[in-house]
Amino acid sequence: MGEEAVVSTVAAAAMSSAPHLLLICFPGQGHVNPMLRLAKRFAAKGLLVTFSSTSDVGAKITASTGVEAGGDGVPLGLGRIRFEFLDDHSEGLTDLDPLMRHLQTVGPPAFVELIRRQEEAGRPVACVVGNPFLPWAIDVAHDAGIPSAVLWVQSCAVFSLYYHHVHGLVEFPPEDDLEALVKLPGLPAMSVADVPSFLLPSNPYKLLANEILKQFRTIHKASWVFVNSFSELERDVVDALPGVSPAPPPLIPVGPLVELAEDASVRGDMLKAADDCVGWLDTQAPRSVVYASLGSVVVLSAEQLAELAYGLASSGRPFLWVVRPDSSAMLPEGYLESIAGRGMVVPWSPQDLVLAHPSTACFLTHCGWNSTLETLAAGVPVVAFPQWGDQCTDAKYLVEEFKMGVRIGAPLRRDAVRDAVEDAVAGPDAAAMAENARAWSAAAKTAVSRGGSSDRHVQAFVDEVVARAGGARADKEHVAVEQKASIGMTSVAA
To answer: What's the predicted TM-score (pTM) here?
Structure first.
């Protein structure tokens, strides 16, 4: 037998005894990114990890990245990661409410079937990790007697706001009272404009909000609650939550869940990133480019898109702007030709690489939590343009607490875009914001490095899963021995 075959056989034998972790993810890029990055960190420490989501997500990831579903997966660090998706027929469901109704009905039995397939394949699931947008996943694991964990993909501060709301521990001001302030333990004073919009009466995404609230009502079914943050970033709120009554399960910071160089080859992009982004950045001067992206969900009106377009163009700085295919048709006529040579518009970008590039000067962002942590880890100041959900809270933290950015005033106007970009890059507070961003970047990198706070939390979880799996195996072997002995005694008696 050749050396490669021997190594493969040894690795396969090791994985056959490694505990199997199954992660089930809500079908959105903002959920896939942190869930998959956490999956890779668990795998790197020696677990067999399966990443799963809807069939629609599976089709998109396969088309964009070449990921193969099923099979043994690929080695990663000390473990292995594989992909296997639900058989839920969700392809083509793009509107949020129909998708949520579909998943509420089809998701649970499809997840039961996925777990059953793992058992039949000889890799029984030792633990399930879900997220709050699919609360039924933890219910399925609980009913099957499988330990479970939740990954909260937003901030600890937003977790606290949801938790206080669900348990009737806070009353938010009327939406038209912008002067009133709410104060919760470990959080700065917040106006109603800073509260996640899903918790306000005007929220149009009722089904999505209801699913999140369901998870908070049953979150004690989970043995672990991970959060995409790190201890040094949100220490005050993490320390304050155990004093709330009723107390939530302890939050376990495992972030920032940003792409790490050692496992960046396994990606979950649902859109194919433009190939020439980094090459174009290479041609630009250091700290000169404005990077603008509003994520995978936010949709602007034609008027807003035009104001943003002309605001970026009038900044006088080179810019890289992500305009998704569903919005590109609304760009002003002749705009792309008018910015040739100084601006680049792409349908999707490798954001982690863009933010880490030395040419990037600032990030005009919707302030989704993933983007917030990615820009924080990269040490890039922001121009905050929140739209809804937790983005409102994240913007407050970026600008007022982390002190690494400015806001675009509402309503969106091209002059406001130009002025905010100038303030972030060359204004009187720009140097201080850049210094704060660099300091947070250093703290984030320390947290996920070997022995850092988040790395220790990931290792502790892996150790506990391994210990539980070993105990469960020993129990099964003990039962088998007793049964065998009982059968033998019965035979002798006969």
So the answer is: 0.89
